[in-house]
Structures are given as structure tokens and as C-alpha cells.
Amino acid sequence: MLLLQHIGMAALLVVLTLCLQCAGVTALISWLRTVASDDIQKLSMSYSAALVMRATIAIIILQGIIILLWASCYRRLCFPSWNSAFYFSAASYSTVGYGDVVLPLKWRLLGPLESIMGVMMCGISVSLLFALITRLVHKNPELRIGADSDEPRKRSSYG
To answer: What gap in Å lies between CA 87 and CA 101, rounded to an integer?
Structure first.
């Protein structure tokens, strides 16, 4: 019975993490589409820098919310204070894992699971920043993502 409780809690945390990440990334993409024009390469350097900074701040806030989700679980199940729960969650999510605060033995596998989720969610977030910066610095506006496929399509001016 205890194993089912642990598996259930782990599955719930994974699903909630994915839901938060997907909702956050979707909102960020929607926002970026409204503030960045189709002619994104013609934006001023200061506007482009501010856009990247705002997107980065939004991603940091999103990751903080996910850390808070895991911390709330740890606070409920494992730790007597929010300080310890949030610290452990942030250390696990970022894969730093100092080891000065540890989970009780029966919940110990949640820490590595959070680290795996942290790597994946940060990877998704960084890929979004990479896509934004690539669009901002790309000098060839004719290289576009094809509407019909996932492959880049280069339009030739030769015919």
C-alpha cells in the first residue's frame, strides 16, 4: 500500500509539473507572438534585448512556480518548515543537490525524480529562449519553417 502511495504521489507531481510547464510555455509563446512582429529581424537592438530579458524573467518565474509545487509537497509530507522544503526543492530541481537537507527515507526517491523533471523542464525553457534568439539574429529572412512540415524550407530567389 505504501508503494502505491509513493507511485501515486510521484505520478501526480510529474503530471502537475508537465501541466504547469506546458501552460507557461504556451502563454509565453502566445505573448511572444503578440509582441514580436513577423519582421522580427528589424527590431531595434534595445527592444530585442528587452524582449529576451522579459522572456528570461518569465521563464525564471515559471521554474520558480514549479519548484514551489514540489516544495509544497515536501512541506506536507517531509519537512516541518517552508524554508527547508523550498531549499531542498530548489537544490533538487536545479540538480545542485547539496545534501545538507535530505528527505526522509520513505520519500527519498522524490528528490532524484524532481532533478530529472528539472533538467527536462529547464531544457524546454532554454530551447524556447534559443528559438527566440535565433529568430532575432537570423540574417536570412527567407529561411523559414515550412507550414506543411517540421523541416526548414529555403526559398530560392532563382526560381
So the answer is: 8
Residue 143 near residue 152, CB atoms below 8 Å: yes
Q: What angle do CA 91, 93, 98 make, to 5 degrees?
A: 25
Q: Per residue, what are the HEC states of 141-154?
A: CCEEECCCCCCEEE
Nearest to 111 by CA among 122, 99, 120: 99
Taking each helix axis as running N to C, give the angle between helix 110-137 and helix 2-35, from 0 to 180 degrees, rounded to the nearest 10.
10
**Dist. CA 45–CA 96, nearest whole Å:** 34
Could you tell me the pTM of the whole model? 0.81
Q: Which domains does the chain have, with CATH numbers?
A: 2-23+45-139 (1.10.287.70)
Q: What are phi and psi of 104, to 5 degrees?
A: -60, 150
One digit per residue, the tens of pLDDT, for the chain of length 159 reads 688 888 999 999 999 999 999 999 999 999 988 887 667 777 788 888 898 999 999 999 999 999 999 999 999 999 999 999 999 999 999 999 888 999 998 898 999 999 999 999 999 999 999 998 888 887 655 544 444 445 555 554 544
